[in-house]
Amino acid sequence: MNPVYLRKETNNGTRKVMVDMAYLVSHKKIRLPKWQWEEGLFLPYKPESTNVEFERYFLFKDNMIKEDQDHYFFDFPFRVEQVETVAV
């Protein structure tokens, strides 16, 4: 499986954060260390039923499913094939 990267658009370019692939594969959820989270992180994905190239799935605190002392957890509502795995 190719690595999946979250992205954040900044004035200087795009910042990439690699998703914990072992956790994603075994739990079908994104586990993100708290120190890596910031407003505006998104996951580019290709919707199944539209002709759109890619859309952005933003990781907001509103769509967080749980948190522990060190991590935030988010749903991963896609098949891995839908997610853009190329790190630009």
Number of separate helices? 1
- Class from secondary-structure proportions: mainly beta
Distance between the termini: 18 Å
Unreliable parts: none
Q: Percent helix among the residues?
A: under 10%
Strand content: 35-45%
Mean pLDDT: 86
Written as H for each helix and E for each strand, in order along the chain, the element string is EEHEEEEE
Walk across the major sheet and give the strand order: 3-7-6
- The tally of strands reads 7
The major pleated sheet works out as: 3 strands, antiparallel
Q: What shape does the CA trace take?
A: globular
Tell me the radius of gyration: 13 Å
Question: Would you give an account of this structure?
Answer:
The chain is mainly beta and 88 residues long. 8% of the residues lie in helices and 39% in strands. The chain has one helix at 21-27; strands spanning 5-10, 13-18, 29-33, 42-45, 55-58, 64-67, 71-75. Strands 3-7-6 form a 3-stranded antiparallel sheet. A two-stranded antiparallel ribbon has the order 1-2. The chain has a two-stranded antiparallel sheet with strand order 4-5. The longest helix has 7 residues, at 21-27. The relative contact order is 0.25.
Summarize the SSE layout with pairings.
Layout lengths: L4 E6 L2 E6 L2 H7 L1 E5 L8 E4 L9 E4 L5 E4 L3 E5 L13
Antiparallel strand pairs: 1-2, 3-7, 4-5, 6-7
Give a quick summary of the entry.
Helices cover 8% and strands 39% of the residues. The protein has one helix and seven strands.
Relevant terms:
single chain, 88 residues, mainly beta, three-stranded antiparallel sheet, two-stranded antiparallel sheet, 1 helix, 39% strand, globular
